[in-house]
Amino acid sequence: MKSPDLLKIAFVGDYLPRKCGIATFTHDLRIGVARESCAECIVVTMDDTEGGYAYDGEVRFQVAEQELDEYRSAADFLNFSNVDVISLQHEFGIYGGPCGSHILAMLQDVRMPVVTTLHTVLSEPSQTQRAVMMQLIRLSTRLVVMTERSRQTLLNTYSVDSEQVDLIAHGIPEAPETDQSVLKEQFGVEDKTVALTFGLLSPGKGIEHVLKAIPEIVAKFPDFIYIVLGATHPSLLRDQGERYRINLERMAKELGVSKHVSFYNRFVELEELTEFIGAADLYITPYLNVQQAVSGTLAYAFGCGQAVISTPYWHAEELLADGRGVLVPFADPSAIAREVIGLLGDDDRRLAMRKQAYQLGRSMTWDHVSQLYIDSFNRARDQRTVALKPLAVRTLDEQPLALPQMQLDHLQHLSDSTGVIQHAIYSIPDHTHGYCTDDNARALILTVLLEEQGKDLPEVRSLASRYAAFLNHAFNRDTGRFRNFLSFDRKWLEKDGSDDSQGRALWALGTCIGRSRSAGLIAWAREVFHQALPACEQTTSPRTWALAIIGIHEYLRRYSGDRVAAAMSQQLADRLANMYEANATNEWPWFENIATYNNAKLSQALITNGRWFDDQRMADIGLKSLRWLCEIQLSPQGRFRPIGSNGFSREGEVAAVFDQQAIEAHAMVSASIEAFALNKDAFWSEQAHLAFDWFLGRNDLGQPIYDPSTGGCFDGLMENRVNENQGAESTLAFLLSLAEMRGLSATMRVASTPTH
């Protein structure tokens, strides 16, 4: 039945020819809805590669998945395209930002109802996953899930109103009438019993457990063959190559079952896939993740009338209940062998199972499923009480402030095979002063933050490797300390570096350990971190203590149970707190009788320690001292004015106004973001913006400090001019500030209240 009401529907998600399950689902759903309705069905795609894919004409807008601004542009496109309803496919891994939070920026800006299909519904989400999910639920007019288990999880874990949820099975193609003997002959397996697994290959698929079951199976059925159909998952292929498939092939050889296993390493189209299913005697899904809410491959095989053996992940447990299939324990080759042998040896039972699956599958075909989606789209539009206003403007107060693009040109210009060069004459690297551990530590931190934000590009990985290699060379394993200054001809200029370089290097190592996904980088950083940590106890600089505390808590993100690291953080925090209590007065609530450089790091360290250890004393000192610092670093015009390095600020005296350094702006950005994370007070997010805006020209001279074409940053603000040299410290201060502000923007988006 045609629905004349909906004129234009936009499908948002991955899309073919991208090789992933969501892309296939979005494509098939769009085709089905277009066939069952009169609506124009357009697509907005997410691209995980530069330039995207060779899409067909229905794709009208492409979004680079890690570029936040493109999500807002997509919202503008949808608003001005007279779209009646959006069909959004949601999986945490297909959108950019922490736990896919970038998609919220689009949803907050669109003016039409959104029907969100939840391909994963986690029963035990992380804090960030839960926050993203709650926003997604609030911004969606209706939600679609594919299993009763997912529906119950929405109701119980996320307190969703049951009236907002539609239960619609995963769609499947119409299975053509086929002669199995003809199909077997086509694939050259006419004299064999065939088991099939298909889908993109990755370690979570559990293929190795089927391979281990084959020796027992072939003892009963010598003509048995196991076909593994599907290419390696593209993201896995980029990160690890064909390691998993190669390991499986070697395992089959060691087990002596090579002639009973066939790997088809390619992504097959639907018609060919149904032929493979038709040629198989049974289908196996040995997946290892119990919380897998839906499996398109399982739905396809089942709906095509295949006998299925599966591990009891959520979708399989529900679909195969009441004898519609066979469930085996996770990672249990013996159970797999037993059930395969049982089904192959009982034709009546296997054929009855296939018939039951095929009959139930008629309610899962795309023509039927698409009509259910159309009904959901119509309900969503009827629910909307606010009239669609695609041209409605939004004030600046209703949207986050724009941030500059991340440009790494100047950083790459300053970096050679040794590391990042300290200084520049204007924008030209100055080889005279060589390199230092401080700057290479900062640069390494930046690369990890970029990786965390999805900017894990080859050039970023290359830079990270160089900076890590510099720190590794700088570390003296005999003393447990870092040397700091290296001449351009690669000669160390001192036997032992400064205390600050020790703390800053530890911060970089902790960041690698706590935030990176690179196993090699983590392993190296962990080894050096443990060797460098004890030396912090002998340092005397409060800034070193602060940097070390921040680094330790980055490390504790991954290894929260490390009591030695936690004890060191507490010891150093106690030193800072005791120093504050010995020096602070009501008029001068500070750690020393002079505020010098990198000041906000002292406050940030205690806020961090107090936040993670739930220590109110530390948190209070950190917040009080930071608030005071905000007050004395505010110009009469209400702009951020860092304490000048030409005299600093002594108790009872007027603070130096110039020379203003980029490192102070970055320190205030970081500390304010940490304070916001502690208590969600909007005051702190405003302070982070004030400090960051110093780079953009909201400063005493009203001149920008950063170069938007390269991402370079000038070396400071003098009394009458900008210091136009673009050294590493200032450039990295800006780039780190920008990366952290992007992180704050994502946090604010997850925590914000929708406006519609």
Automatic annotation (TrEMBL):
Pfam families linked to this entry: Glycos_transf_1 (PF00534)
Domain Glycosyl transferase family: 185-359
SUPFAM superfamilies in UniProt: Six-hairpin glycosidases, UDP-Glycosyltransferase/glycogen phosphorylase
Protein name in the entry: Glycosyltransferase family 4 protein
Lineage per the UniProt record: Bacteria, Pseudomonadati, Planctomycetota, Planctomycetia, Pirellulales
